[in-house]
Amino acid sequence: MTGYILKRLLSAIPVLLGITVIVFLIMALIPGDPALAILGSYATPENVAKLNRDLGLDAPLVTRYFIWLGNMLQGDFGQSFALNRPVLDEVLERFGATLLLAGVSFVLCAVLGIAAGVVSAARQFGLADKAITFVVLLGISIPSFFLGMMMILIFAVDLRWFPVSGMKMAYGGGGFADVANHLVMPALALSVVATGVVARLSRGAMLEVLRQDYIRTARAKGVSEGRVIWGHALRSAMVSIIPVLGIQAGFVLSGAVYIEMVFQWPGVGRMLVDAILKRDILLVQGGVVFVAACYVLFNIAVDVAQSLLDPRIKT
Question: pLDDT tens digits, residue range 246-255?
Answer without folding.
Answer: 888 888 887 7
